[in-house]
Design brief:
Number of domains: 1
Helix content: over 70%
Mean pLDDT: 80
Radius of gyration: 12 Å
Shape: elongated
Number of strands: 0
Strand content: under 5%
Length: 36
Amino acid sequence: YEIAEECADDDDAKASICQLKERVLEEIKLHSSFAE
């Protein structure tokens, strides 16, 4: 996601990638809390 964010040309694309990355990180946290 970080590489995609750097490669994105416009600010809208960067913002979308950033939002997506944050959602994925939230999902990972959620799944790891269930796994414990």
